[in-house]
């Protein structure tokens, strides 16, 4: 069984790698992709900037989740995860997921109003539903963390 001491450094390395890839996507790939789309299909050129801004903001939401996860890992290593300080970082994750969900709902409404092919609509609906479920799971985990924090505080007072 892997222990926290061994898993946390691996998870941190994964977070750094994922963050680096997301920055490349955010700065280089996504703007170039939508510029290319506008050049290849001039009738869709009006979507270049809204899609670029939406995609960059969506990646930013993921980056916020990664940073909050990093901070929570720091609290785990210091054995301070069951303190009120951890709730703020979980709130950051909840707000980032909510922001991503809002972006996906806007995209879903736009695709629903304009798409000829239901495949794209179903794909956006699938991602929006997955993000919504993820957000609800984080909210439930936050309530469990808050309850555990309260129990730990009560136990510390007794000891």
List the helices and strands and how they pair.
Layout: H1 4-40, H2 48-77, H3 84-114, H4 118-158
Helix pairs in contact: 1-2, 2-3, 3-4
Describe this structure in words.
There is one protein chain. The chain has 159 residues and is an all-alpha fold. 87% of the residues lie in helices and 0% in strands. The protein contains four helices and no strands. The chain has helices spanning 4-40, 48-77, 84-114, 118-158. The longest helix is centred in the last third of the chain and has 41 residues, at 118-158.
Structural class: mainly alpha
Q: What percentage of the residues does DSSP assign to strands (E)?
A: under 5%
Tertiary shape: elongated
Q: Helix and strand succession?
A: HHHH
Mean pLDDT: 94
Terminal CA distance? 31 Å
Query: Measured on Cα atoms, how large is the radius of gyration?
Result: 20 Å
Percent of residues in helices comes to over 70%
Number of helices: 4
Q: What attributes does this structure have?
A:
about 160 residues; mainly alpha; about 85% helix
Concise structural overview:
Helices cover 87% and strands 0% of the residues. The chain is an all-alpha fold and 159 residues long.
């Amino acid at each position: 069984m892997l222990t926290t001491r061994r898993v946390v450094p691996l998870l941190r390395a994964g977070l750094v790698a994922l963050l680096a890839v997301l920055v490349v996507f955010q700065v280089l790939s996504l703007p170039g992709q939508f510029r290319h789309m506008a050049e290849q299909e001039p009738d869709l050129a009006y979507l270049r900037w809204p899609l670029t801004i939406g995609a960059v903001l969506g990646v930013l939401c993921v980056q916020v989740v990664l940073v909050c996860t990093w901070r929570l890992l720091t609290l785990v290593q210091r054995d301070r995860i069951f303190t009120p300080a951890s709730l703020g970082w979980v709130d950051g994750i909840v707000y980032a997921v909510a922001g991503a969900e809002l972006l996906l709902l806007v995209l879903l409404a736009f695709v629903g109003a304009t798409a000829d092919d239901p495949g794209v609509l179903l794909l956006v609906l699938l991602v929006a539903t997955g993000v919504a479920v993820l957000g609800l799971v984080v909210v439930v985990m936050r309530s469990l963390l808050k309850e555990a924090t309260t129990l730990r505080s009560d136990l510390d007072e007794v000891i």
